[in-house]
Amino acid sequence: MIQHRVTQYIEKEGLFSSENKILVALSGGADSVALLCILHTAGYRCEAAHCNFHLRGEESNRDEQFVRQLCEKYKINLHTIDFDTTRYATEKHISIEMAARELRYNWFEKTRKNCQADVIAVAHHQDDSVETILLNLIRGTGITGLLGIRPRNGVVVRPLLCINREEIIHYLQSIQQEYVTDSTNLEDEYTRNKIRLNLLPLMQTINPSVKNNLIETSNYLNDVATLYNKYIEEAKTKIITAEGIRISSLLKEPAPEAILFEVLHPLGFNSTQIKDIASSLHSQPGKQFCCKEWRIIKDREFLLLEAVQSVSKATPPFQLIREEQEYTSDFQIPQEKQTACFDADKLNEEICCRKWQTGDTFVPFGMKGKKKISDYLTDRKFSISQKERQWVLCCGERIAWLIGERTDNRFRIDETTKRVIIYRMV
Predict the structure, then answer these.
(1) Which residues are annotated binding-site positions for ATP?
(2) Annotated binding site
(3) CATH for 1-210?
(4) Splitting the chain (426 residues) into consecutive groups of 10 residues, what average pLDDT does each group show?
(5) Which residue of 75, 138, 161, 388 has the fewest C-beta atoms within 10 A of its own C-beta?
(6) pTM of structure
(7) Class of the 320-425 domain?
(8) Which InterPro entries match (predicted)?
(9) How far apart are CA 132 and CA 128, in angstroms?
């Protein structure tokens, strides 16, 4: 009996107990109606939540009316809400599907807290999981994407993953329970529907058991993923440092590209980029790879990872405090790099602070000849990322201080100095 199988699955996966309150996401379709009926009949404390997205005209209102009547029949408390889904999608620049998903899950969580429910039960079943596996496979995915839909994601639980769509319809017929049909599910419009209506039937002509085989494979891969993820987490601790991903440590691992995928894919790097990054590990420093929010720089020893927005900052990440005083014989020049002292009379042009530029030169303190800043930073073994973050203090067109590093010898304090100017980084 389906109800027994579902309750057994709930216990096996530890989704919730008889003491918990369950908020059931109820659309009015066969799956969610079956979920509500099974849980209610099994004696679980349920409330229901229904979203009217107003995307299908009168059909949307029909669904809401049906849901109200169903909950009255079973004496189940119903929460409803109306969404202007199209406007939300336009404002957020996202698809209608994504907009509906964001709206409903945000509202489900808010409603769950308000009614003090322990979990949100949604009606995904085995066929949905099969479609998800194929969808991820078509788009390109890691091992996690081949696991299908999992029974729990935080407070969202899926008690029907132990049964398929055909069994759900048969169950509703056996208890003579009606449901509504979303006409868009019958249209060959979205990728998931193409899989459901076209691809899966074609695959079943090759192997009628393809759905069961995919589910069994995903269950097997779930155990494989447990071992895989354990290895990945251990590998991350070996390769990730405060400076970045240590290339030598990464290359010692048996599957460097797989580790890179698991580290970088969640940040927004796609499979092709990750392959290119893996190929660059043996090449010269300097290559850069960008996604929307992050940038990877191939340096000598590390893959440097930084947020894109931090690269383009026009203001320095520090303040300079200026102090001027008389110079006396007992004046002690501070030794820390965050402080710079200059002869006030030599610092006689407009002072500004900027990032260093290609071609910039200065005369390092204690030297007589000019040196390119790029060469100085290379000699100091600065990474590409560190070089990009280097600022200079200018006196007119001349550089007086490579901030935090070294002052220019032309502005040094000497026996003729009468007043000193001190700059401190804070």
Answers:
(1) 27-32
(2) 27-32
(3) 3.40.50.620
(4) 95 96 96 97 97 89 95 96 93 89 95 97 96 90 86 96 96 96 62 89 96 93 92 95 93 94 91 91 88 88 80 74 91 90 94 92 94 93 84 95 96 94 94
(5) 75
(6) 0.65
(7) alpha beta
(8) Lysidine-tRNA-synth_C, Rossmann-like_a/b/a_fold, TilS/TtcA_N, tRNA_Ile_lys_synt, tRNA_Ile_lys_synt_N
(9) 6
